[in-house]
Specification:
By secondary structure, this protein is mainly beta. Helix content is about 0%, strand content about 45%. It is elongated and about 65 Å long. Bound molecules: beta-L-arabinofuranose (FUB).
């Protein structure tokens, strides 16, 4: 998706009173449409697995899943596509809402796909890495009831018993075996009672609020089932239980219907002492119910463990820590951007691509400490290149250096380029702004500053990561 400009919020009052341009940090991902967030914390990093609405989708055209990671909750690294529906030889499409979980050094990704012989079913893929690649663990579906087998959510209880819940309009569960790719007992259909899942008025077929997109977890001894509710348009409700298999008690609405997407889909985690609520809406340019985008809000549980009301914002969440510019940083580490895309890099991971004159990336909360001396970047260009302007706090902010890039003979022909930097001290939002002639200018794989102290940044950098 080549965007004209990421959402820019400029209130009339702020134009008059403060000449500050504030770029929205929700949606989290702006380089493509994403949906159905499934956050996972592993080894101190927050991974975010998402679905991927294809550009121009008019009915859930979704071919693969995407993965992003962050350690500060504002700058997200694009980890590429860990899994596609085509990984499952028995599937013909519809890479809908899934969830990944770690166990015994492996990662298990539960997803719904449309079977070649018809109907959605739950598959499971496995990998040695949270960012994949994942392989089909079975060569056939893990679970199928024949009715609405979508939106799996997985949780491992303190005693090691794992549960897989899923479904629309029904809610099913199975007890997974230790191997995470088989289950014991039969599939249980959860009774959707009004005590458990609220009351939906005027729909005899669906008398309770539960719709789809369950998110199952435990917090302070309480089991939570958070889910999309109410039909079209959806909102997010939740139920709780003292047991992993119910009975459930309906606890109310968390997020009202807001934004341009008629579906919504929750994902809830605690990370570094904060609680986060992920969801999707249609807030990117061109956004709709079929071209959605994942967002996140920070929240605090009430003292009794109930949820507050959470509203969608464009501001996003506060940073947990600052970014250290004196270590190699993947160029696809993005808070917000304008016009840039990401693609698979021949040197591993992703690189930023399709960069034209005026495009930029913002990396939030970069701590230059006592000062930066130079900037080094891994770049490639099949044309005659362009410039990377390094600016502070806005795309037109203080210029601290310009790295000039010439043609390298190919979009994946990588070379190192460096330039001198001055005037970068303390904490700033860093903008990489790209300038040059017509058409695509250059690609960037990674970048790194060096400091003007003799410790190579160790002293210069505040060290608050
Ligand atoms: O993304 C496709 C479907 O839309 C998901 O499976 C549902 O939860 C809804 O978000």
């Amino acid at each position: 998706m080549k965007k004209v400009l990421s959402m820019i919020i400029i209130s009339a009052a702020s134009i008059l009173l403060f000449p500050v341009v504030c770029h929205a940090e929700n949606p989290i991902v702006q380089t493509r449409y994403t949906a159905d967030p499934a956050p996972m914390v592993y080894n101190g990093t927050c991974y975010l697995y998402t679905g991927h609405d294809e550009d121009g989708s008019t009915y859930y055209t979704m071919n693969d899943w995407r993965c992003y990671s962050s350690t500060d909750m504002v700058n997200w690294v694009d980890c590429g596509s860990p899994l596609s529906y085509s990984t499952f030889s028995w599937a013909k499409g519809d890479a809908w809402a899934g969830q990944c979980i770690p166990r015994n050094g492996k990662f298990y990704y539960y997803v719904p796909v449309n079977q070649k012989n018809g109907g959605m079913a739950i598959g499971v893929a496995v990998s040695d890495s949270p960012t994949g690649p994942f392989k089909d663990a079975l060569g056939h579906p893990l679970a199928s009831t024949g009715t609405g087998d979508i939106d799996p959510t997985v949780f491992i209880d303190d005693n090691g018993q794992a549960y897989l819940y899923w479904g629309n309009p029904n809610l099913y569960y199975v007890k997974l075996n230790q191997d995470m790719i088989s289950y014991s007992g039969s599939i249980v259909k959860v009774p959707l009672t009004t005590e458990g899942f609220g009351v939906r008025n005027g729909n005899a077929q669906k008398p309770t609020l539960y719709e789809e997109g369950p998110w199952f977890y435990k917090q302070n001894g309480m089991y939570y089932m958070v889910y999309a509710a109410g039909g079209i348009p959806e909102y997010i409700c939740y139920s709780t239980s003292t047991s992993p298999t119910g009975p459930w008690q309906y606890r109310g609405k968390i997020m009202p219907t807001q934004g341009k997407s008629f579906t919504n889909h929750p994902g809830v985690i605690d990370y570094k002492g904060n609680s986060y609520f992920f969801y999707h809406n249609g807030a990117l340019p061109g956004g709709s119910g079929f071209t959605r985008s994942v967002c996140v809000e920070q929240f605090k549980y009430n003292a009794d463990g109930t949820f507050p009301t959470i509203n969608m914002t464009t501001t996003g969440v506060p940073a947990i820590s600052n970014l250290n510019p004196y270590v190699k940083t993947e160029a696809e580490t993005i808070c917000t951007e304008s016009g840039v895309q990401t693609e698979k890099c021949s040197e591993g991971g992703q690189n930023i691509s399709n960069i034209e004159n005026g495009d930029w990336i913002k990396v939030k909360g970069v701590n230059f400490g006592t000062g930066a001396a130079s900037f080094n970047a891994r770049v490639a260009s099949a044309t005659s290149g362009g410039n990377i302007e390094l600016r502070l706090d806005s795309p037109t902010g203080t210029l601290i250096g310009t790295c000039s890039v010439q043609g390298t003979g190919g979009w994946q022909s990588w070379v190192n380029k460096s330039c001198k930097v001055s005037g970068a001290k303390g904490v700033h939002d860093l903008y990489l702004k790209f300038t040059g002639g017509n058409g695509y200018l250059l690609n960037v794989n990674w970048w790194q500053f060096s400091s003007n102290d003799s410790t190579g940044g160790k002293l210069s950098y505040g060290g608050d990561n």
